[in-house]
Design a protein that fits this description.
The protein is α/β, with parallel strands linked by helices. The chain is 48% helix and 13% strand. It contains 18 helices and 15 strands. A hairpin with a 2-residue loop joins strand 2 and strand 3. Helix 4 packs parallel to helix 12, helix 5 crosses helix 11 and helix 16 packs antiparallel against helix 18.
Length: 439
């Protein structure tokens, strides 16, 4: 980055500081990953200079010979990896991909069903704060007290509301998705079943989670989570989807361009192609299985230490710790102080609110890229449990207005805590043993 360093030291220094933060800390946010150096190289290329509205060999501007090759490779790799006949690799990210699905198959005012946000669903599946609920009649389904999807409720709601589209997929769900059972419900009411596999795409390719390809009509995903790619999105249409509507692929293409987006981000497309190439290697399968093994090892150790996990464990890459009413923020901030990064998150039937949720969400994709295994997971789980123990006296106040006072006191406590300083040093030592990019 010699040009950047010379020309804009403020930005250069902030990037270098972020590199250091990622290198020296444990990233446990389950939607994050360390993309490979090859993926990052593809992102930082002259492809960012190009406009390519349209699709390969059907563009509006000239000079597309190289971009057409790149996008075609990305499409063909996506189709092969997920076993589907159609792929669009242009969505700027996961949320625009999901919006394009609505535009492709629904009319404004149509009814759609999705997993409730506090139960783990994503904003774009119809939550009230998302624009999707402005344009569509959105019905939420839930998980049962054991943390598994409530299939009985889903079937009842589907029969009652006759949705045009049912989403399956989530941002904080620790169990495998029952794609086959949901496809039966969707078929019964004539709905499109759309699997949003943003979180689990890499696990599916690795064979560590079931694929929805046989059961859903459409699949959407981000490319920057377990797929290990750059920020981006993809929409896939399955054979079942094309059987329901042979025009589905064309409708998706039109929804992305010209309805919602302009020119694709060609540098991102190239990086997605590189990502998909990496995901075809046998080492990717091994990595995906290790992600799940690591999550199970961490979950078991956390529970051994007395922490409460939603659904008492995990089937995938992520876990949700129930920290007590409104206490997610305390654990997030205390762990930040020791170099362990995760995010506060709602838990099913959260007694608090999405702004002051009662849980934290954590996962193993990023640290598995570093080469960490079960032994390290146990160590990390014990640090988390030690930190939790240390902050046990801090409770969410009865009156929300008192939160500012409590959090101020809490931050002073963190700042002065000697145990946290010791754990932070130990975290740095572990990270040094498992370098990220400084190999
Ligand atoms: C299940 C799911 N779908 C969609 C998205 C949206 O992706 P993006 O943040 O890239 O818009 C996310 C992001 O967390 C997600 O978890």
């Amino acid at each position: 980055m010699k040009n950047l360093k010379k020309q804009d030291p403020k930005i250069y220094n902030a990037i270098k500081a972020e590199e250091k933060r990622q290198e020296e800390g444990l990233e446990l946010i389950p939607s994050e990953i360390a993309a490979s150096p090859a993926v990052i190289e593809a992102l930082g290329t002259v492809l960012t200079n190009k406009y390519s509205e349209g699709y390969p060999y059907k563009r509006y501007y000239g000079g597309q010979a190289n971009v057409d090759i790149i996008e075609t490779i990305a499409i063909e790799r996506a189709k092969k990896l997920f076993g589907v006949p159609f792929a669009n690799v242009q969505p700027y990210s996961g949320s625009p991909a999901n919006l394009a699905v609505y535009v492709a198959v629904c009319q404004p005012g149509d009814t759609v069903m999705g997993q409730n946000l506090p139960d783990g669903g994503h904003l774009t599946h119809g939550w009230k704060a998302s624009a999707t609920s402005m344009f569509y009649n959105t019905i939420a389904y839930h998980v049962k007290p054991d943390g598994y999807l409530d299939l009985e409720e889903i079937e009842k709601l589907a029969i009652k509301h006759k949705p045009k589209l049912i989403w399956v997929g989530a941002t904080a769900y620790v169990r495998e998705f029952p794609f086959e059972k949901l496809s039966k419900i969707a078929d019964k009411v004539g709905a499109y079943l759309v699997a949003d596999i943003a979180h689990i795409a890499g696990l599916i390719i690795a064979g560590a989670h079931k694929s929805p390809a046989k059961f859903a009509h459409i699949i959407t995903t981000t490319t920057h989570k377990t797929l290990r790619g750059p920020r981006g999105g993809m929409i896939l249409v399955t054979a079942k989807g094309l059987k329901k509507d042979p025009e589905l692929g064309n409708k998706i293409n039109q929804a992305i361009f010209p309805r919602l987006q302009g020119g694709p981000h060609d540098h991102q497309t190239a990086a997605i192609a590189v990502t998909l190439g990496e995901a075809m290697k046998p080492s990717f399968k091994k990595w995906g299985h290790q992600v799940v093994k690591n999550a199970k090892a961490m979950a078991n150790e956390l529970m051994k230490r007395g922490l409460k996990l939603v659904s008492n464990g995990t089937d995938n890459h992520l876990m949700l710790i129930n920290c007590g009413k409104g206490r997610g923020v305390f654990l997030q901030e205390a762990l930040d102080a020791v170099g362990i990064t995760l995010n506060k998150n709602t838990i099913p039937s959260d007694p608090s609110s999405p702004f002051y949720p009662s849980g934290v969400r954590l996962g193993t994709p990023f640290i598995t890229v570093r080469g960490m295994k079960e032994k390290e997971m146990k160590k990390i789980a014990n640090w988390i449990a030690d930190v939790m123990e240390e902050i046990k006296d801090f409770q969410f106040p009865e009156k929300k207005e008192d939160f500012k006072i409590v959090i101020k006191k809490f931050r002073v406590f963190i700042e002065k805590n000697k145990k946290f300083k010791k754990i932070h040093q130990e975290v740095k030592v572990l990270c040094k043993k498992f370098p990220l990019y400084n190999k």
